[in-house]
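User: Hello, can you help with two protein structures?

Assistant: Certainly.
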Amino acid sequence: MTRGVPRLRISALLVVPALVGLTAATGIAGPATADTLPGPVFVDGQAQVVPEFADPGTWIRERLWVETEFDSDGDGRRDRMHVDVTRPGPTADGLKVPVIYETSPYFAGTASTQRQYFWNVNTELGTQPPPRTSPPPIAHRPDRTAVSTSELGTWVPRGFAVVHSDSPGTGLSEGCPTVGGANESLAPKAIVDWLNGRAKGYTSVVGGQRVSATDWSTGKVGMTGTSYNGTLPLSAATTGVRGLEAIIPIAPNTSYYHYYRSNGLVRNPGGWPGEDIDYLFDYISSGYPDRREYCAQHVRVDLMNRHQDRATGDYNDFWAGRDLLNAVRGVRAATLMAHAFNDWNVVPEHSVRILTALKAQGTPVQAYFHQGGHGGAPPLDMRNRWFTRYLYGVRNGVENDPRAWIVRNETGESRLTPYADYPNPAAAPVSLTLQRGGSTAGGLTSLARADSGTEQLVDAGNLACGAGTLATQMSEHRLLYVTPELSAPVHISGTTQVRIRLAASKPAANLSIALVRLPWTSGADCESSTRGSTTSIITRGWADPQNNRSLRHSDPLEPGEFVELTVPLQPDDQVIPAGSRIGLMIFSTDHEFTLHPEPGTVLTVDLARTSVELPVVGGPPAMPICAEPDVRPTVVVGGIDSGVPNRSLAGTCTVNDHILDTEEWPNHGQFVRHVTEVAGGLVAAEVINAGERSALVRAAAQSKVGK
């Protein structure tokens, strides 16, 4: 797979013999001899399959329980976690290897996903919903002899041990499931401590013989996993545990508030209407039957049902305690974050918010993004280089690689493309304004001032269909504003912000916003799926207008009174092909994500005070949306010829198209400021020079526009 940049190449094989601790730590080795054990082999900075490690018949397998520092199930004893180990055969003779570790609440089975066990989404906003029924208990499996077999075939042949564990309160691990509570961080910490000789392991869940890992483990650990299993490596890393050197979280849920709420609004993950944190407790509660009643009462009832707050959706201390961003300062492990931009289950903000924080605090970090749906690990060579560098200490230069890798497949064949960072450093906001006609298709442009006045939509409520139906049919249930056809591709990179001023006819209302690509090519059925990717939804977001001042406190809306709020849509990096149009769709109930109240709430949108800040690579000059381009040879500002060549910009646009001297400006000063900003952006884009910038500003000042 082409990456577009040269790779550091290790010209010869590095063979690391056993029993030389410094060798394993540095990746520097002399030639193997007949008296040495087989060791790991590295080529091009990656651990290779070694024949002596590759035969599963020679692998050493162990099962044990590691004692933690907590008692979460109230039985008066420290909880022990069920662990299995698979390691290369030569570790029995003194070879020490690092560890790839995955932990999960799913390994021992899960509960029913029938909708009758979820919350009823046909609920009025702001009211306490009727109680939810729990699914039948998960069958306990005391005869399990191993936790999991995932990752074995990838890493054991390459000279790593692989360790798995059941999360607290699941499988044969003691404790209570807490869905983001402290024990989910401390449990994997205990396993890392055991691998370093700092925690106790036993052959039994109660009593048993002591088991040590220090005779085969180097103490260096890398964690990985997808979804919930991808959350737990980051949870462990927040403890700052020594020995956890690297993590590869794939589609991690980094905040249960951001999973089940959005900007004050009660929201479910895509494809799972009515799911909430207390259902997830039931879904994973597969632990010892004699502790389940205690856990259900103390965790699900006394904690979750008391504080999850499906009435207001407000942020509170319960949610703050399940937000890893609040603990990210503890992360020292080198982090390769992986996520999909069309993941509507664990939406991409989960990784981007952590990525931003890790960069700011100097933690080694890279990002891998793709355009698909939930899950999707980075390519094996990328993961191999990461773990080889940080677990074996091989100087393969991975820390000097580009900071972001993005799968580009929107306009051609799939290609993993390197970028200096995410968001793309060349991206700058483009302000798009709204033009009348949203009940059919109003205008969306950066080349005109916003229209005045208001437009309305009527919430479809519990009769609502999915976004595809709204985008493809004329409807009173949405407002749609669309750009002219793009005459060149547009590269979006970052977080789109929608600033909106609106009023509602009731004290509470859903607010849903989608940025769509037209013509629509995805499914447009009322029950379209959100469990997979889509090419027609560019990005989307949700908010509660009652939380326009604070995420922690809702203010009931005064019917007919306008409020202003900013709605961040989900982060994205996508190339919108030429020939497409970009649409902003404003609606209320999102059939696939929000509660479904009674229909009829009217939302009134103030066009002049509503806009979109679109992060475009290249900024405003890179927006190719000129339906009737101005091709005069020089830039003319309000009848004043500046003498500056009217150079071509993106697509068919020219500099003249961005001057907007035919618009109605409230005063001359605002127009001059606008031209000054445009000229500054053109200098930054190297379209004009400083002297030409001065000529444009001078012509604007001399004009009578706005007077």
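That covers the first. Now for the second protein you mentioned:
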Amino acid sequence: MPARPAAGAEYITAYGKTAPLQAVPAVGGKLGLSIQHTPGTINVVSHDLMMQRGYAQAEAAADSAPGVSSGGSPGSPAQLMMRGFTGNQILVLHDGQYFGPTTMINRPQNSFNLESVQVLKGPSSVLYGQGAVGGTVDMRTRNPTFDAPHANALMSYGSFNTWNAGIGGSVPITQTLALRTDFSRTSSDGFVKGADPHSDDFTTTLLWKPTSKFTARLSMDYLTDRLSTYYGTPLVDLSQTGGRVGGLLSSSKGLGITRASLWRYYNVRDGKAGSVNATPTLHLDWRVNSHVLFHNSSYFIYSKRRWNNAESLTYLNSPGSTGAAGNAIAPGRIGRDRFYVYQNQHQVGDTLHAQFDFSIFGMKNRFVLGGDAYYLRFIRNRGFPSADYADSVSLASPESTQLGSFAGEYPFMKSPTTMVQAGLFLEDVLTIRDNLRLVGGFRYDWLSLDRQNYTQAGQFNAATSFKGHYNPDNFRIGPVFDITKNISVHGVYTTGEDPPGSNLFLVNRGQFTRLSHSRQGEIGVKASLWDGRFTTTLALYDIRRTRMLVATGPDTVATAGVQKSRGVEWQGDLTLNRHWSLSGNVAYTYSRYGSFHPSASVDASGNQVPDVPAVTANLWAIWSRVGDLPLDLGAGMRYVSARKGDYANTLSLKDYALVNVFAGWHAYKNITVYGRIDNIGNKHFIQWADTSYPSEVMLGAPRSFSISAQADF
């Protein structure tokens, strides 16, 4: 459910603003606490804000939160960075449900179908079991309403032949039954031509409310997609090629990117990166009386995913390399692999909890007790040629070749994995005084993992297969003190325990013996000032994570070690008057490894964590009703400081600042036409350096424009 107003609070949605502190986002837990009274940092990006800023997918909305950035790699399509942690160390939920480890399981979500994107910072094992250490992102779908019929539509066209379209609406069928359906489609040729991503997302929800005390909500989300198949631009030896593009990176090994390779597509012509996902869910709420509430959520997940690409790109600077067919590869060409993986996932789960309101020695108390369980069956089939390189292409003019078939690829290697988890949890908020609350929680889990591997001959591989049983227990506790009615300070200590950081379905025998452990301390302040015109939050945190694993290649992991992160995050939203509003945030992150050995040849102890900028900042300004005309003008700026691109810290990615502008014309009542220019300065920058593909980097999108029409009735 979307962020909702706290009981008795006035909830006003201001144009161009994020959620007020009195909103109650579901991602914060089951106690029904407002943002102000949750001992932790929560950011909510509403549907209206996503549409206004032109965020076509949820990852872009998450990027607008303090200290968050995304990866964009098709191998890990939902990869986010938060509080110094990346990949599966960020938990992604859909309406509060866990779908599995983030990077290969989750898919980019079209923002049109979403009510909000909610971000909770720090470990969340107490709340969700599989509690990733950096934070949790919950993508909440739109719900039906009973007040009247509503309809929404979106049509957008922009650079690179990019189309976005959506249509949806809510209809009260009877006084007790309402229906909402949304359909959206995105498609593009891609800013690297040939990548051509697209997705279709259909969401429908039936809401039944026979009495004021009982609600049943049945939903179905059906998503099909093809991810961008741009896997990166190869790093080359500049001493041999010359033609360096400045302002992108520096390397102690003399590596760089040449002008001849910018915006080149090095994948095969018929690359594949698609999926089909169906997720029915049923939510039941029963208010027994003013003191007791029961909630139950049941869900089923079916997903089929297919990758088949040339993913690893290696610049060959010396003779002696050969392709899978035995042909010599000339120096100066790009050697390519082939890698395919087919995934089939079935998951069924249920969560039941009860909420009790009562008094303890005259103090108000709310207590939540519940349990959840799920069964996950994940079958992974994969293969790659039995050669270092399948083939090669030209650096300056990569040939448009097909996938082909190579010795060693087929038959595939099969790895069925079964994961069963059950957990008991409790949460509690004790109102010691009207201005002082103590919030706590505890969770105990039973996790069973059965990983089976089979050879290409179909024989069971006992040497790499394993079974494991794990019993993590975690807690959080922290006070919230109201200095005034609208200013609160909080502190919280949280622990987390979960699979150790690499993709769980890559791990083999001997690589995964104990769960990763993390702990976080956080203090912060939240305030609403100037009659609600200025809302601000400030948080300082310190995180330590131990017993980590790390992915070292497309199908390998290694024991690593310890990671530490500390930083500060600030968010502010200011409405000067009915014409002017400003919103911004800035985050500083200090993230380093402790004892950390990602491979036998690399000691990264003390090094900076790859893809983690020390500073990220966002700023938006909106001038509404310019000259009392039905015209809005807006501008946004995003800054990302320099980052490291590899574990050894030999590769440094340059900082960048992007400026976006838009104009909105309210052509008719409830219809707005937007024109946008993103990256107006056409800044060339590197968005991500995937450590699983160390010989290439992901370029960010160049300047682009779009024009869109939005209608709400």
